Amino acid sequence: MSGWTRASLSAALRAVGVVSVFGWVLMLGAGTALADPPPGDPGGPGPGQDPTPFTGTAPFGPPRLVPANGATVGVGQPIIINFPGLVDDAGAAENAVHISSVPPVPGKFYWMKPTQLRWRPLSFWPAHTAVTVDAGGTVSNFQTGDTLVATADDATHQLTVTRNGAVEKTIPMSMGMASGGHQTPNGTYYVQEKLPTVVMDSSTYGVPVSSTYGYKTTVELAVRFDDSGDFVHSAPWSVDDQGKRDVSHGCINISPTNAKWFFDNFNAGDPIVVVNSGGGTYSRHDGSNDWQL
């Protein structure tokens, strides 16, 4: 394993609820993260932060950092450090990544896969936080925008949007139907990408288009919030169901007008929280379950 012993990698990953077995990364279990940000401690760095510049020789090659330098992101965005290959020592890699923010907030490291280390605050970033990432001398500075959060409540079939704690918009919606096991899992997600149009095809995950729950359709104004193909998107065909019942295959359906507003206002890292669904909690270790770790 090129310098990583299976024992050292497993120990590092097990600490965050993940175990590596012959190169595969598997979830062992995790709790649900808090959805409301705690106040930062203005008197010093939060636990898990290190504001000192990195010095010495980095134990890894130059990484690719997300968010990119100069970006403005939502308060649910994690820091992602993509290494060019396996690192020799997980602990040394973490020690070489220095995170600091104004205001300072507590946070933690966790490994999404053996070549990708992540860091997130224990709860959402405060609005308008300035963040510096120094990963072995590769430095990125970004900031967060407003605390813009969409909460999809399956009990009411409403998508409630708050900005900095105040309700800005309430949108009737339809989520994943129980029939066929399509319920949208509970969890705290965040915007990962936005697509003006996207073809949704059930055959890409093994369900023939011609089968009972098969489909292939072009969807507009699609805001992706997980790596399993779930989006908030325009669904003119289900407007009569929105606010009343669940009829989708897992996505959050909203009207074309509301989808345009959502698409224009929500951007990378803005949280989308699903509650009161009968679909359990999102637990796939696929790169979008940060807030369940």
UniProtKB/TrEMBL annotation:
Tagged with keyword Acyltransferase: yes
Region (Disordered) residue spans: 36-61
GO term, biological process aspect, one: peptidoglycan-protein cross-linking
Keyword Ribosomal protein: no
Bias kind Pro residues: ranges: 36-50
Pathway membership: Cell wall biogenesis; peptidoglycan biosynthesis; Glycan biosynthesis
GO function term, MF aspect, one: peptidoglycan L,D-transpeptidase activity
InterPro entries per record: Big_10, LD-transpeptidase, LD_TPept_cat_dom, Transpep_catalytic_dom
CDD domains in the record: LDT_IgD_like_1 (cd13431), YkuD_like (cd16913)
GO CC, alphabetical: extracellular region
Active site: H233 (proton donor/acceptor), C251 (nucleophile)
Transmembrane segments: none
Superkingdom of the source species: Bacteria
Keywords: Acyltransferase, Cell membrane, Cell shape, Cell wall biogenesis/degradation, Lipoprotein, Membrane, Palmitate, Peptidoglycan synthesis, Signal, Transferase
SUPFAM superfamilies from the UniProt entry: L,D-transpeptidase catalytic domain-like (SSF141523)
Domain L,D-TPase catalytic: start-end pairs: 148-275
Pfam families: Big_10, YkuD
UniProt-recorded name of the protein: L,D-TPase catalytic domain-containing protein
